[in-house]
Write a structure and sequence with these properties.
With 83 residues, the protein is α/β, with parallel strands linked by helices. It contains three helices and three strands.
Length: 83
């Protein structure tokens, strides 16, 4: 059976652009998503990058570990420094 590989990129939970009061809810959602994706048989990885760390590590990971799909979280897409 073919296993789909998904890479999900998001901001670290302690990033200043994520309001402290929603961090637990976002973290719970990420964990539930990871659990469900793995239950469905996907090779699912959640990785964190920020404007401070840049996206070079993400680009290198894509080169070294090709995947079938990428999910880009809202914190990343809504941050002008990362788009």
């Amino acid at each position: 059976m073919f296993k789909v590989s998904i890479l999900h990129i998001g901001l670290p939970m302690d990033h200043s652009s994520i309001q402290a009061n929603i961090r637990p809810k976002v973290e719970k959602h990420f964990q539930q998503t990871a659990t469900r994706m793995r239950e469905l048989g996907a090779d699912y990885k959640l990785i964190y990058y920020s404007p401070e760390t840049g996206l070079e590590g993400f680009a290198n990971q894509l080169k070294s570990e090709p995947c079938d799909g990428v999910v880009i979280g809202g914190g990343v897409t809504s941050n002008p420094e990362m788009t």
